Amino acid sequence: MNDLDALLTPAGRALLDEVRDTDPARELAVATRLRRTHPADLVSAALGQARLRQRAVAKFGAADAGRMYFTPNGVEQSTRASVAAYRAGRFAELGVASVADLCCGIGGDAIALARRGIRVLAVDRDPAAVAAARANAGALGLDDLIEVREADVTEVATAGYDAVFVDPARRGGRGRVFDPEAYSPPLSWAVAAARTATRAAALKVAPGIPHEAVPEDAEAEFVSDGGDVKEAVLWFGTAPGAVRATLLPGPRTLLSRALPDPEVRAPGRYLYEPDGAVIRAHLVAEVAEEVGGGLLDATIAYVTADTLRPTPYATAYEITDLLPFNVKKLKALLREREVGVLTVKKRGSAVEPEELRRKVKPQGQNSATVFLTRVAGAPTMLVGHPAPDAPAR
Q1: Which of 186, 221, 279, 362 is the most buried (most CB within 10 A)?
Q2: Chunked mean pLDDT (size 10), the chain, 393 residues
Q3: Closest Cα partner for 314 from 262, 381, 238?
Q4: For the sheet containing 314-324, what is the strand order?
């Protein structure tokens, strides 16, 4: 009997409830105690699942994570619930009533779709993932909307569904896969499958996908959540050729206006750090236009301006000092300002933040942010702090 089968029995569920909040530091003692009255394999399975659920809280929230079933890969590779819910909302707005979810994993996206009332066929070839997806549909009361099937997605007919969603595996035996044709299944297959959808399709890809690899008939959407870039999605049946950056929570969406590259200009009073999704979407020019600024350097995504214009697409910092790169001068400045809490950010610099922090040894009651970058090609340090009304990042 595999781990999940055992945990789905009444005895397994009861044991899962008992070990739900086990501190990892006490796991050995708890296991020793429980093995006196329960089979050793069941105890190991329950403690392992409890550990996975604790890790999954960050992605799924405590309420869902405490009821769901996970595999180690499922915790690592599944879509964050907030991102899946946003995508399901887009499908719903497009009038989609049914989706073939190919490479479904443990079912995170299928759950989000079903919660929007969308009927889902969830397919994966990994037996453990399929078992978890089926168990999750039942645990969350969604099994009437989610059909889970173990199969090779390339052999599944999707003609009876309004839309297709494909989340190909982007990890191999040596780690992350960067070539879209090395995805499993390859991007070219996923694109062909997307083009057969009657209403819409979405393909989840790595956020670092080259823009030239995006098909002309696809919309490219780059998504961040809480400032962290999570994924890129190629949409079919929406706005061919469009590029957008979507920031969660919100959502807030910035659309490409095909602007030319911003001009390089002298540093102003404010520095704007665009959200990572904006940078991946190549929409820094749109942010620069919005704040009335230009670039510090032609090759670096820092925008500078003389006035403060708060924008959800970038974090604004008020710059107090501009120095050529010199650790001793920075150390003296921070000592004079009594800076003990130092945030180090970098673009276009080989210096590691922790290395700089060790060298300057910040001490004091004040805080500051230092940017290690280039200004018109010259290594430079800009010192400042988050501008009023600017969320810290």
Answers
A1: 221
A2: 81 92 90 93 93 95 95 92 97 98 97 98 96 96 97 94 93 72 91 95 94 95 96 96 96 96 96 97 98 96 96 96 95 95 94 93 95 94 88 53
A3: 262
A4: 294-297, 300-305, 270-274, 314-324, 378-386, 366-375, 339-346
229: which strand partners? 224
Per-position b or e across 246-261, b if 16+ CB within 10 A of its CB = bbbeeeeebbbeeeee
Q: What CA–CA distance (Å, rounded) separates 239 from 219?
A: 6
In this structure, what DSSP letter does residue 238 have? S
Distance of CA 63 to the CA centre of its chain: 20
Question: Checking DSSP bridges between strand 270-274 and strand 294-297, what pairing results, if any?
Answer: unpaired
CA 222 to CA 202: how far, in whole Å?
12
One-letter amino acid for residue 101 of the chain: D
Q: List CB contacts of 305: < 8 A, sequence separation 6 or more.
A: 268, 269, 270, 272, 291, 292, 293, 294
